[in-house]
Amino acid sequence: MTKQIKSTIWQIVFVLGLGACGDQNEPDDDGVGASSSTTAGLSGTTDGTPDPCVGDLGCWSCEPALPVHLLNRCTGASCEPFANTRERLPLLAADGSLPPLP
Predict the structure, then answer these.
(1) Closest Cα to residue 72, out of 62, 87, 81, 83?
(2) d(Cα 78, Cα 31) in Å, to the nearest integer?
(3) Contacts with 38 (C-beta within 8 Å, 6 or more apart), sequence order
(4) For residue 33, which of 6, 38, 80, 97 is within the disulfide window of CB 3.0 to 4.6 Å?
(5) What are the boundaries of each domain within the chain?
(6) What is the signed CA dihedral for 21, 24, 30, 35, rounded to 10 degrees?
């Protein structure tokens, strides 16, 4: 890499770093914030009764109205564990370790 490219990369990293350290405003109460009252109905309604849109596993079962609803949407997906076997990972040693990097 040339000296000019390295310098440009460092300048970009520096500017992005300054942007990350700027003042952080608290999010609006729109269901996207981190406070427990802004989970957009995923923990219950405001009067304490269970929300009819919260599924059995805590997922959102109604039509999403907020980004947090879409992220927590109930799906029919299932999880299949990954088998760490020599058939799937031919470089895996018998003790489960991997070969050293080149």
Answers:
(1) 62
(2) 27
(3) 27, 29, 30, 31, 32
(4) 38
(5) 47-75
(6) 100
| pLDDT, tens digit, 9 for 90 and up, residues 5-18 | 877 877 786 666 65
Q: Is 77 helix (H, G, I), strand (E, B) or coil?
A: coil
Residues 56 and 29: their CA atoms lie apart, in Å, by 25
Cα(92)–Cα(86) distance, integer angstroms:
6
| pLDDT tens track for 50-99 | 788 988 888 999 999 999 999 999 988 888 888 888 889 999 888 888 89
Phi, psi of 51 (to 5 degrees): -80, 130
Q: How far apart are CA 48 and CA 34, in angstroms?
A: 19
